Amino acid sequence: MFITDIRKEFYDVVVNQRVALLVSSDIDALCACKILQALFHCDQVQYTLVPVTGWQDLGTAFLEHKEQFRCFVLINCGANVDLLETLQPEEDSIFFICDTHRPVDVVNVYNDTQVKLMIKQDDDLGVPSYDDIFRDEEEEGGDDSGNESDGGSEPSGKRRRYDEGEVERRIERQRAMREWEARRREILFDYEQYEYHGTSAAMVIFELAWVLTKDTKDMLWWAIIGLTDQWVHDKITHMKYVTDIATLQRHVSRHNHRNEDEDNSLSIDCMRISFEYDLRLALYQHWSLFESICNSSYTSCNFKLWSMHGQKKLQEFLADMGLPLKQVKQKFNSMDMSVKENLREVIEESSNKYGMKDIRIQTFGVHFGFKNHFLASDVVHATAALLESTEKDDSPGDNFIKALDCLSRSNLERLHGGIDLAKKKLMAIQQTVASCICTNLILSQGPFLYCYLLEGTPDVKLFSKPMALTLLCQYLLKMFVYGILRCSCLSLLPLIIAAPMDVEKRTVIVLGIPPESETSDKKNFFGRAFEKAAEGTSSRTLHDHFDTSIIELKMEDRTKFLDALITLLS
Fold it and tell me: Where are the transmembrane segments (predicted)?
């Protein structure tokens, strides 16, 4: 059931309960969790935080906590499956779900008692009407029994005519039932065919804080990071991003206006959020400009930096800007102030000459005191790198806590550590993309492009993680489409990438993304396609990820699984 009044139907209910907070391992969910934690601390709500990485984790977490808790809050998980069927809870358990995954399962939508959906109604949900997909038992059963017990006292001719009429009515009912079921299957197929994402969970929870008049600048910054995560990982359309940016900009203006007269507005530990029209260069304020240009997908794809011609073009671009190499190759903080003053305008002017008309993007930045300045995308990259860190043998739970910590402004050291990890990750992605293109690892399989990372590939362990593999996949497709196949019909194809996941279990992680185009609606059909291909070939797959377009597959079944996909999508 959709919640219409989030304060009355959600917060007023949980504020007097002990709450189990089950949070998915993605940046938007972490940000929503931080906002909700801050609200719970305000009102002294008792809660237990449990990170979950997939459906198995969610089932285990529920089994461990179902005796102690009646209220469960699920962030970025649980909406796109029949939750009651999956978890089999007691009748007094209530699930509050704040999830960006679409489509929302119809049973969750029409369950009035146990499932409460904290989902924005202005998203284009397209939920089928109740009568189209559910029938009451009386309707199904009909009056099939007839009235045969009374028939003994009637003349046989009259009874026969009555029976014939009853048979005709029964046949008519069965025909109508078959037609309704066929129509139902068609409606559900159309509704569930594509996977996509709705409004950021952090934004939904921030709006709750605003309604409660308990919103702070920290909460607003977390909501901004949640939205930016959706943009960085290409989950929403550009139009959706710009619309949500405008909503957050109004909140930023309100907070900045509210704090203008406060004495601490210029203190050493103040926090100032600003709307910025900044460069699409990853981490450039914490790196050198040269490294950032080389390792950002937007510039790297446009220059074709895997080739000698691309490297030469980059040198020409730097010369056109009139920036000395010495300045460009040193850390951004160490560049001359005279160079930094109008750097954005200089880069934008030269970028337009080289066909990069979208080098600047609407975003937000934050100042902590006088020294620390971060863009929202910097924090997204840093948090993602900590969340999927492979440097130490930390458990996913440990990485989750570190990533959660780096979002607090009291923990800037951890954030800077995350930025260093993110630089290594972006360099690994760039090198892998160049390697895949130079060795022709991307193959056309007919209805889609396919790339398989071999076991000996450098940094292959990093790409066993979903977010890192997603970034690589998007980067590869952009590079292939805009750099190599600018006018080819292959440029309209989606991409499937597979990478070794667990060498001992001999499994690979398989991920599919929709075709790359400026008008793409970001709707992904691979979730359903993977299910059908696995069923049709009895491939040993594990559909454990909350994104249905990411699965685990046994290495031995890879060939037959791919063959089935080609047949299915041709």
Answer: none
